[in-house]
């Protein structure tokens, strides 16, 4: 297992460098950058002193250097104006848009993001697992059709649309604003029971909206996987030996049916940080998603680069975790592979 | 006295592992010099570098090892971690696992893990004539009435040592 972990992690290193380079190149692709645009704006207003100051900032952040050097400085493997100071040294750069260090900007949003998306993922599993199992066990029954209808509705409803509908009707019918993570009066207030109640209410709505679109696909996939397993000879053999009901179901078929979901961990981890961007914008949630969109729009190089790279690292880590889990849980070769040497 | 079958890991088969292990360890050491001591990144890189160094050592160990198999049992000679032997009569565990390097499970390697008398021998399928060794160990495991897991059963079918299930 140690060798397997090492092999998977070794492959991560070139993948990380390639992804980091791609992100850096793609963000730099549009002509100009945040500071160039600022300089042009200040010059058009005749503010030469301001333009000179920003020109200094361009040098300070190595934006006047060739792209390969900028990339090296950003990573922290090339000497910049502040020596070797980049991602590897924990210096994530400065956000031009927010005029503060990237770590400060992201720190503020990371907690709510992870909280909302983690709860959404848990909700998806809590809803989809039992419904998928019931749909497979009661195949072609009324309850199976009802679950299928719910699943298709969930799959066909975009999260942002549901968010808009809930936002409008909660206001029209109940006079309540569900935007943000707490009611406006508690935004800057110290923690209290009322603020916690407000957070719980807002969080529940946000989590249900985000989870809704993810539930449908999982129910259908789990139902299909489980039906495949239930038709296999080992289930018939187990039934013949007198193992019945939930004991039979949970012992092998469900275990085998959820194996494909382990492979999804690679996509799950980055979605905890950068998922549900549009829903977050609609619901005014203080998460990383809207910050990323704003950073990309204003070509805030270091902020956008860091968020994208962080999501990419989580994808890589998630993929390694899912590979290790699959290696541990299901160490079977594909039949037909030649083994003899 | 039964005939002893001698198996080695061909250096050519392990060149890739050796190159990967060396480069990864070197990159890890370089990064350790670049990141501030005591930071989260430092400990993460340190952990990875130790893992890569162990991987490199295990590869070097396999290159310098010899596996001997006869009617008595299996013996691991040489290597960096010392020799060990398991007598077939002492065999308690027989495990054949596949470690996939691709999602379709077509790429990857097999690992045969034998346990007995408090010792463990793990051999991967890059060993020359691995199939012969596997067949011999499987015969011994059946004689010793060692139980096997579903995964081992499946992998033995793939290796042609058990008949395929009629599904």
Report on this model:
The complex is a heterodimer of chains A (about 350) and B (about 170). Chain A is mainly α and about 350 residues long. Chain A has 2 domains: about 1-100, no CATH class; about 110-330, MetI-like fold. Helices cover about 70% and strands about 0% of the residues of chain A. Chain A has helices at about 1-30, 35-45, 50-60, 65-75, 100-135, 140-155, 160-175, 195-230, 235-240, 245-250, 255, 260, 265-275, 275-280, 290-295, 300-330; strands at about 95, 100. Chain A has a two-stranded antiparallel sheet. In chain A, helix 2 (about 35-45) runs antiparallel to helix 3 (about 50-60), helix 7 packs across helix 8 and helix 15 crosses helix 16 (about 300-330). The longest helix of chain A is centred in the middle third of the chain and has 38 residues, at about 195-230. Chain B starts with a strand and ends in a 9-residue tail after the last helix. Chain B is elongated and about 55 Å long. Chain B has helices spanning about 10-35, 40-65, 130-145, 150-160; strands at about 5-10, 65-70, 75-80, 85, 90-100, 110-115, 120-125. The interface of A and B includes residues 10 and 339 of A.
